[in-house]
Specification:
This protein has 317 residues and is α/β, with parallel strands linked by helices. It has a single domain, classed as UDP-N-acetylmuramoyl-L-alanine:D-glutamate ligase. Helices cover 37% and strands 22% of the residues. The strands form 2 sheets. It has a 9-stranded mixed sheet with strand order 5-4-1-8-9-10-11-12-13, with helices on both faces. A 4-stranded mixed sheet has the order 3-2-6-7. The termini are far apart. Belongs to the carbohydrate kinase PfkB family.
């Protein structure tokens, strides 16, 4: 039985080395990347027994994705199909004032046809927790229904449900996203959202604390975690609000920082630690991720503890 099961699309990430422009690149780095598999890998490396479930094309690229996820720290339980294709995205890294750019090539991806009937749902009902994100229902009408069905299934089995709003403006408009996301909220125990997404997509006002309190009051979440970028994060839990600043980090690759945060949080939260402990651990994992290329936080528990124990001079003692 897994402590944590996640469901969603994992793509092939293709990016020029360094900050080279795509139009001039002569080579591309090849990685696997997806919010839900990232969280499974991150939490798996930090002590949880994790499984990522999905649907992939029975192809070299599909097998590469699965092998990469498993090599990095999570079990993969995949439905193989002869239809559809492997989704990809191109990432062009940049520094201010040039923004990092993402180009999706995921139309007709095999995962967009996944239904509960073909997925290994017993994994979900036997797990301690089930995680997915707002990316998944944005990909197709079928996945909108499947996401809702899987969350309801998990709730009925007393599996803790965790959901990250994870809004992607290249996938849908706020007016499309809001009713879909809010239809899922009754079946969610732990909600994670960036404060900007709460404002842009959910129409909430005020600072992060007000956003967390309003979400908890309206939807009855067990826990609400609100991230604020450089201002850190906070969580609402059982009427209390816990603040957590960021740990300083030299940023090599910021992509996947949010997934690192969620994976770190769940690695402690699902093992019975308090929300303040889980939140601090999450911030440390997120800081470490920013120093690592790729979408996953390939770190060890000792490295996370090193960040937590580091003195003001930046030396682990």
């Amino acid at each position: 039985m897994s402590d944590l099961v996640t469901f969603g699309e994992t793509m092939v990430r293709l990016s020029p080395p360094g900050q080279e422009r795509l139009e001039r690149a002569s080579e591309l780095e090849f990685r696997a990347a997806g919010a839900e598999s990232n969280v499974a890998v991150n939490a798996g490396r930090l002590g949880l027994d994790t499984t990522w479930i999905s649907k992939l094309p029975d192809s070299a690229l599909g097998r590469k994705v699965t092998a990469t996820v498993e090599a990095q720290g999570a079990e993969a339980d995949v439905v193989w199909s002869d239809e559809g294709r492997q989704g990809t995205y191109y990432l062009e890294q940049a520094s201010t004032p040039r923004p990092t750019n993402v180009i999706y090539d995921r139309a007709n991806a095999t995962v967009t046809t996944a239904t509960p009937e073909e997925l290994p749902t017993k994994r979900i009902t036997a797990a301690d927790a089930f995680y997915t994100s707002g990316i998944t229902p944005a990909l197709s009408d079928t996945l909108e229904e499947t996401t809702a069905d899987l969350l309801e299934l998990a709730q009925d089995a007393d599996t803790t449900t965790v959901f990250d709003v994870n809004y992607r403006s290249k996938l849908w408009e706020p007016s499309e996203a809001r009713p879909v996301l809010e239809s899922l909220f009754p079946d969610i125990d732990v909600l994670v959202t960036a404060v900007r997404d709460a404002r842009t997509v959910l129409g909430l006002n005020g600072d992060a604390e007000r956003v967390a309190r309003d979400l908890a009051a309206e939807w009855g979440f067990e826990t609400v975690v609100v991230t604020r970028g450089e201002e850190g994060a906070l969580a609402w839990h059982a009427g209390d609000v816990i603040e957590q600043p960021v740990f300083e980090a030299d940023t090599h690759d910021a992509v996947g920082t949010g997934d690192a945060f969620v994976g770190g949080f769940l690695a402690r939260y699902l093992q019975g630690e308090s929300v303040p402990v889980a939140l601090e651990y999450a911030a440390a994992v997120a800081a470490l991720k920013r120093t690592i290329p790729g979408d996953t936080a390939l770190v060890t528990p000792d490295e996370v503890e090193g960040v937590l124990d580091r003195s003001d001079d930046g030396i682990a003692r």
